[in-house]
Design goal:
With 762 residues, the protein is α+β, with helices and mostly antiparallel strands. The strands form 3 sheets. The protein has a 5-stranded antiparallel sheet. A 3-stranded antiparallel sheet has the order 8-10-9. Helix 5 packs antiparallel against helix 6, helix 8 runs antiparallel to helix 9 and helix 16 packs antiparallel against helix 17. The longest helix is centred in the first third of the chain and has 53 residues.
Length: 762
């Protein structure tokens, strides 16, 4: 039976090895032609690169080749990863087979031989993929260097200045391209525009009056409400929008599409102007920067409309160049006007220090264009103006978020009690995660600005993808692969979960658990344990998302345990003791405890120490290990019931029965004394004995709250003294008779037994 089982096992192992080998062969056959073809392509492109050095190609062709190389390299990286995984599986298989022996079975020998062949095949394919990666990487670097040389040469090339084109236009007096004619049909277009004007203008006027009536202008110096400002500005522009829309229809039906595009840009400017003004001025009807910002919006929309209208197919080259140069001058002048207006604001003081470099940057593109450096101007104009425009737009969009965060802040001078009350927050209650919200919004807008800057500066797609690959794929530092995207994501997730833990802690301690029957100690334990669990889970999730291998973490934990054994025993001891205190709850906040020479009320049980406030209002931090290892007296462990003992002595000859009745009556009359509780005895009077000068009694009773133990004892003694006075019961005090010795002669034979003189007779 054992031999049959071994044969079955050997047959199954051989079958599995054949299937695995066949799968490896199919995968290698599928990858091998691509690897060989990729290697040949890289060699062909390297030979072609020598020709490009002498005869540089166009940038479009160069970028297409870089894109193809990037795709090839990414596929080779995937190839390396796949073959690495397969090699690890084959290595595990060889390890399972063990060392080769001469007396091993034929099936094992065959399996070992086939596995070794598979390993050699995979290693060969892996080497080919790595060779392709290295060759593609070198070729990418060379193509990048060639592209930089081409761009530098193009940027330094100077063409005809703008004034030469102006002279040519004045001499030839021809703006249109040869063979291009512009015709205009007056009759149908004029009739349609007049009909549109008769319909749209009265409607716009009526709507404007209605908006002014619904949203009247406030008296100065009162600030405008956002909705009032928006509709008031829209009401002022509605008649103009109706009139210009009629002109748009007139020019479009007449056949001048470019004129209709420019007029349509003006209509869009009038429509979006209230929104721009509202974002910029924030409740102020007229503010610095409003006019140049609207002018800048109109210039951008007009340029976009003319570009979409194919103006380059209508005007000749000189007219296009002159028009573009005049547009750059208007754009620079409007931008400078907006810059200096915004720099006068108190909240934008940083622009005052940057006025000179920003001014140089704004006029650099137009100057380069007028001097004939068109390639340089084509790079600077979209780059500088696009970046600054994107920053301005993102700043305008960020301001509503910033105001929302300010309204939710705890500062009473800036926040909104209505909004905070609507969300359920008290006057001085902090909104959890407010700083995280600010950070996430800033990161979002910063990311948008980075991508926008890459676009307007026309960074090649291959460079962007390479940068993205570094962010998502990471880079090697020794044997560690650092992935920035994972690190950022792990940080954000940890911050979110930590904010959630703080919010949940506040909700549990201040709202949810307050409606339960749990005491304060139980609530604090639940809150603390819940917070620790959530934070621990957040740490594990963040480390996992960051790419940390938990096997390495186990090694670190082993090394840390050695360090704990040497130098961190007390910290770990207090930490574990804190967990025990939180779970077992032998002491809890509000308890009256005695630890050694420290006596007071427990204020807080944390993970490392317990805070005790003494009766002198001094806070003592007791390590948790002392509460576990030493003797602790807790007056309130199970309940707050405690015993009060009031000792009293009466003179000899007093009525002991009356004394007992008075003491019991005093005890029963106190509101905190328990008289009818099944769990504790009723007040009792004990005759302790005959003292030296008094009959000693003790009044023993239990009170509801041991916190008032000293106060109740004092009240009982005051009441006893008053009752004894009323019944003429004397409370004695010790009396001593002192005899003074007289100086008399000693009688013979009157010595004491121990040789001393006897005392004189009284």
């Amino acid at each position: 039976m054992q031999g049959l089982s071994l044969r079955r096992f050997g047959f199954a192992a051989l079958l599995l090895s054949l299937v695995f080998s066949a799968a490896l062969a199919v995968a290698a056959a599928a990858q091998q032609p691509w690897v060989v073809d990729a290697d040949q392509k890289v060699k062909q492109w390297q030979e072609e690169l020598f020709e490009w050095v002498e005869n540089p190609p166009s940038l479009e062709k160069l970028e297409a080749r870089q894109t193809a190389l990037l795709d090839m390299r990414q596929r080779a990286d995937t190839c390396v990863q796949e073959y690495t995984v397969q090699l690890e599986a084959v290595a595990e298989k060889l390890t399972a087979l063990g060392e080769q022996r001469e007396d091993e079975a034929d099936d094992v020998k065959r399996l070992r031989r086939e596995t070794t062949q598979d390993k050699e095949t995979l290693e060969g394919q892996l080497a080919l993929c790595k060779v392709v990666i290295l060759a593609a990487k070198d070729l990418q670097a060379e193509l990048k260097s060639l592209r930089n040389d081409i761009v530098k040469q193009a940027l330094g090339q100077r063409e005809n200045e703008v004034w030469h084109s102006i002279s040519a236009l004045l001499a030839e007096r021809q703006l249109l391209r040869p063979g291009t004619e512009i015709t205009f049909t007056w009759w149908p277009s004029s009739l349609a525009a007049l009909g549109a004007l008769l319909v749209l203008y009265p409607m716009a006027t009526y709507l404007a009056r209605m908006l002014r009536r619904l949203y009247p202008q406030p008296e100065p110096p009162a600030s405008w409400h956002v909705s009032t400002l928006f509709f008031h500005m829209l009401a002022r522009r509605l008649p103009w929008i109706a009139a210009i829309s009629s002109l748009v229809l007139w020019s479009y039906l007449g056949g001048t599409f470019l004129l209709s595009a420019v007029l349509m840009a003006l209509v869009l400017t009038l429509v979006f102007a209230p929104i721009v003004q509202m974002l910029l001025c924030q409740g102020v009807y007229r503010c610095a920067g409003g006019l140049p910002l609207r002018g800048l919006l109109y210039l951008v929309l007009s340029a976009l409309a003319l570009y979409l209208g194919d103006i380059q197919t209508v005007l000749n080259q000189d007219a296009l160049l002159v028009g573009y140069a005049l547009f750059t001058l208007l754009l620079a002048a409007t931008s400078l006007h907006l810059l200096f207006d915004l720099a006068r604001r108190e909240n934008l003081r940083v622009l005052r220090a940057l006025r000179i470099p920003l001014t140089v940057g704004l006029i650099l593109g137009p100057v380069a264009l007028w001097l004939g450096y068109r390639s340089l101007a084509d790079l600077l104009m979209p780059g500088i103006y696009g970046t600054l425009g994107g920053m301005l737009l993102l700043w305008l969009l960020y301001r509503p978020f910033s105001q929302l965060f300010t309204l939710l802040d705890t500062d009473p001078a800036q926040n909104s009690e209505g909004l905070r009350g609507f969300l359920g927050y008290a006057k001085d209650e902090a909104v959890p995660g407010l700083w995280l919200g600010r950070l996430l919004v800033l990161l979002m807008f910063a990311s948008l600005l980075v991508f926008w800057a890459l676009f307007v500066w026309r960074v090649p797609q291959t460079e962007v993808e390479t940068f993205g690959a570094y962010l998502t794929g990471g880079f090697q530092v020794g044997n560690i692969n650092i992935v920035p995207a994972k690190l950022v994501l792990a940080t954000v997730v940890f911050s979110l979960v930590l904010t959630l833990a703080r919010w949940l802690r506040n909700q549990l301690s201040e709202r949810w658990l307050t409606h339960t029957r749990l005491d304060a100690g139980a609530r604090q334990s639940i809150v603390a344990l819940t917070t620790y669990v959530i934070v621990g889970v957040a740490i594990l999730i963040s480390l996992s998302m960051a790419g940390l291998d938990f096997q390495n973490l186990a090694i670190v934990a082993g090394a840390l345990s050695v360090g704990i054994g040497f130098g961190l025993q007390n910290i770990v001891n207090n930490f574990v003791s804190g967990l025990i205190l939180l779970f077992e709850r032998p002491v809890k906040p509000g308890d009256w405890i005695v630890v050694g020479a420290t006596e007071g009320h427990v204020q807080k049980v944390s993970i490392r120490y317990t805070q005790i406030r003494t009766f002198d209002r001094a806070d003592v931090l007791v390590p948790n290990s002392e509460l576990i290892s030493s003797q602790v007296t807790n007056w309130m462990l199970r309940d707050k019931v405690g015993r009060v003992i009031a000792p009293v002595g009466v003179a000899y000859g007093s009525d002991t029965g009356l004394v007992k009745d008075i003491l019991l009556r005093v005890a029963r009359e106190h509101p905190l004394v328990l008289t009818k509780d099944a769990q504790v005895p009723a007040p009792n009077v004990i005759f302790m004995g005959f003292g030296a000068s008094s009959l000693d009694f003790e009044l023993r009773c239990f009170i509801r709250d041991v916190d008032f133990r000293l106060a109740v004892r004092s009240d009982l003694l005051f009441a006893i003294d008053k009752a004894f006075r009323e019944h003429a019961i004397e409370i004695p005090f010790p009396q001593r008779v002192v005899h003074m010795a007289k100086d008399e002669p000693q009688q013979p034979g009157s010595e004491s037994p121990d040789g001393d003189q006897p005392p004189p007779a009284a």
